[in-house]
Specification:
alpha/beta; Rossmann fold; nine-stranded mixed sheet; eight-stranded mixed sheet; 36% helix
Length: 656
């Protein structure tokens, strides 16, 4: 009789990863707080500023070489107090950026300028808030340039997909996807988007109407993020006023806010940085932080951040150069915040701030820089195409690895160390009855402090038939590594069910999988849920989630050896196939790894328009060192692939 597990789905460890990340972030936050509290003099404040400036630059890495902008104005529209020019330029060769330039009428001398950064509005520069602050600033006498971010406005990256697809409708999803693919080549989407802003600034400063000594930047939400990052990284910008983004990285993690790929500077927390440091890196330059009381970005975080900044500005004798405003609204660039921004900019640049500023919000088509409103129809390259070019360059440069040299290279990519000496501790847990006469013993394996991997053993009815069974390990066990859940695979995946016919069988749920899977029916989007957030939070902490999952699997194999195993056979499915392949390279007792629904290659992943594999499975910088075909070739004596999943075939996790 075929044995199948009961439909009971245990999920008692679902908060484990997040709780561990919160604890880790709190420790780093407290360490930084103490360092900042020790800054008590102007000289110390200046030294701290220089230190965080260098760390921020390290997070963002190198920017590309400047190439010709090839800018052209494609249309103009006149208004009583200003004109709007529609234009397009190239931030990288063949990578088109569409923009609007607002120029006040009657200028007699170069005027101050504002670089406007768009939030996650699908309309980009034509979004209502972006039009509103641009028109208002132009009526105050500022030259304003607003530009479309990647995958917004006229820069849709996914024209081959249906118009209703999430990657076309929702910029946050598109940024998440592109950011995930860029990580494989060691790129950071935040660096790409900041670079677009820097090239937009190049164009803005090329205009004779602009005074290069008086340049500010602003934006809301994702535009507030870019206004913060550009402030820290671009010395030509002399003032900033981000709205509805500034918080603290700790608050973002504690309150499960998450963030798009560009909002997660790699290793920021691990470097001892917080969001306040992006302002302190330019202290005592004029800065205004705008927030709203009922925003999903918790007001406690932005208040703490603002207090830290204000104290350092006082040490620098520049208290009036920093200001903080919090309104009574929800998320958005509301009139109260826009008014505070204009007053601040006008005061710092010696201008008058008019009170009456009429608005005429235009249809997006009136602001198009291109005839069809789509850069791809004008021959623009996409982020995917540019990243494929980077991958091709890395492939040509990387050295060929062997079974002997691969393990250390893999450890370096995954950011883990091999710990084969220390004993592995575990707890006996209450088991599950699989079917009459078959029991699942359960064991919580302590792979690192505060984190446990769930090992199960399906066995015929033991002499003592209770639910708690002492761990016993055969000399040559089989260990099944699932896609998202051992329980789910044993219910529905035939090769896993066939393994139950040859008891005993071990199964393992590594962190974030199965019993510690953090997902429920409220997670509507597979690309933007708690597994993605854990991946992103790990990025801030300098921790690779896929690396730690491989570590869990290797330490579980250490436990099997500790308890008597001599040879281990792995069977992995989906993401479990990738984890099994990596573990087979790292653990000498693993003599075979049978892979089902295995990923094909990382290069295939970055070529896909709609990658369905999770971000948490992406090893950062992997393509600088190897791709999966190289890996399988080096370990062909251990690894056998029974089936592949394409980049778009990966099954989503179960809800419960």
């Amino acid at each position: 009789m075929k044995k199948t597990p009961s439909p009971l789905f245990r999920n008692g460890f679902s908060r484990m990863i997040l709780d561990d990340q919160i604890a880790h972030a709190r420790r780093l936050h407290e360490d930084r707080r103490k360092r900042l509290a020790a800054v008590k003099t102007r000289k110390q404040a200046e030294a701290y500023r220089d230190e965080v400036s260098e760390k921020i630059a390290r997070c963002f890495g190198d920017f590309p070489a400047r190439s010709p902008l090839n800018a052209r104005v494609t249309g103009k529209r006149e208004f009583p107090k200003f004109r709007i020019e529609n234009l397009v330029f190239e931030s990288r060769p063949g990578f088109l950026v569409t923009a609007n330039l607002y120029v006040p009428n009657g200028l007699r001398a170069p005027a101050p300028a504002v670089l406007g950064n768009c939030g996650h509005d699908r309309a980009g520069k034509a979004g209502m808030e972006n039009q509103a602050y641009s028109q208002e600033l132009a009526q105050c006498g500022f030259v304003v340039l607003t530009y479309d971010p990647i995958a917004q406005g006229e820069r849709d990256q996914y024209l081959t997909l249906p118009a209703t697809h999430a990657l076309r409708k929702t910029p946050a999803m598109a940024h998440t996807m592109i950011g995930q693919q860029l990580q494989l080549t060691g790129e950071f989407l935040g660096t790409w988007m900041v670079w677009d802003g820097m090239r937009a600034l190049d164009y803005l400063l090329s205009r004779p109407e602009v005074d290069p000594a008086r340049v500010a930047t602003t934006g809301n939400s994702g535009g507030g993020c870019l206004s913060t990052y550009l402030w820290a990284l671009e010395p030509r910008i002399g003032m900033t006023a981000p709205s509805c983004w500034v918080n603290s990285f700790l608050s973002v993690i504690e309150n499960e806010v998450g963030g798009d790929a560009e909002q997660i500077p790699p290793g920021a927390l691990a470097h001892g940085l917080e969001q306040a440091d992006f302002f302190l890196a330019r202290a005592p330059g004029p800065a205004l932080i705008l927030a709203q009381k009922h925003d999903f970005f918790d007001r406690r975080g932005v208040t703490e951040t603002s207090e830290e900044i204000a104290r350092i500005y006082r040490l620098l004798h520049a208290d009036k150069k920093f200001a903080f405003f919090i309104g009574e609204n929800t998320h958005g660039y509301f009139p109260d915040a826009r008014s505070k921004m204009r007053e601040f900019f006008c005061r710092e640049f010696g201008m008058r701030a008019p009170r009456r500023l009429p608005l005429e919000i235009l249809p997006k088509e009136n602001l198009f820089a291109l005839p069809n409103g789509e850069v791809r129809l004008e021959g623009s390259r996409t982020a995917v195409e540019l990243n494929l070019g980077i991958a091709a360059g890395l492939k040509a440069q990387r050295a060929k690895l062997t079974a002997k040299s691969f393990p250390q290279a893999l450890l370096d990519v995954l950011g883990i160390e091999r710990d084969a000496q220390s004993p592995v501790k575990y707890r006996n847990l209450r088991g599950d009855w699989l079917s009459p006469g078959v029991l699942f013993g359960r064991y919580a394996v302590s792979t690192e402090k505060g984190l446990e991997t769930i090992l199960r053993k399906a066995m015929a009815l033991p002499p003592y038939g209770g639910l708690i069974q002492a761990l016993s390990v055969e000399k040559e066990p089989t260990l099944y590594v699932p896609h998202w859940s051992c329980h789910a695979d044993l219910l529905a995946f035939p090769p896993a069910q066939e393994l139950l016919e040859r008891l005993p069988l071990f199964t393992v749920d590594v962190r974030g999988v199965g019993e510690s899977l953090c997902r429920d029916k409220a997670d509507a989007e597979v690309h933007y849920w708690m597994d993605y957030f854990s991946h992103g939070f790990g990025g801030l902490l300098g921790i690779s989630l896929v690396g730690r999952r491989v570590f869990d699997l290797v330490r579980t194999c250490d436990l099997l050896v500790q308890e008597g195993a001599k040879k281990i056979h792995l069977v992995g499915r989906g993401q479990g196939a990738l984890l099994s392949a990596f573990a087979a390279a790292l653990h000498p007792a693993i003599i075979s790894a049978e892979l089902h629904d295995s990923p094909t290659s990382f290069e295939d992943w970055i070529a896909a328009d709609d990658l369905s594999w999770p971000a948490s499975l992406v090893p950062k910088n992997a393509l600088k060192t190897f791709d999966l075909p190289d890996f399988r070739q080096a370990f062909r004596s251990k690894i056998s692939v029974k089936s592949y999943w394409s980049p778009t075939d990966c099954a989503p996790p179960p809800s419960h």
